[in-house]
Amino acid sequence: IVNMPEYEQEQLTYFQKWKDDNHIKNKTAFETVLIHLQSLTLEKQKALFKCKPELKLILDTPEILLTSPPTYFTNSNSKLSLTELRAIYYNMPNFNYDQSVQFNFVQNLHTKINHLIDIDTPRNTYSLKSK
Hints:
Mean pLDDT: 86
């Protein structure tokens, strides 16, 4: 059932609707985190990226990300806030199905965002402090 064209189209429609519905929140998160990252010294950025490596993806353009190797898209066990996840998600380009690692990375972001939306935890508030 997963490989059926109807299912694939249904999934694409679902993800596009979610992306459209959350565009403003994701864009606001991206702008907030980007401004914060750009305000840090290089030394503080490196320390932050050591704890939360996914945040590096915010500093690249979607065009660069589209051509980046699969190894660039690794899920770490870092505790990203909802704002950080939204910011990363916003900066992701539309990957092709043949870019399965990248495509799965974006789907994992989507899942984590929805999980944090569904629960009310302190992680839902913005914090770039590493734990």
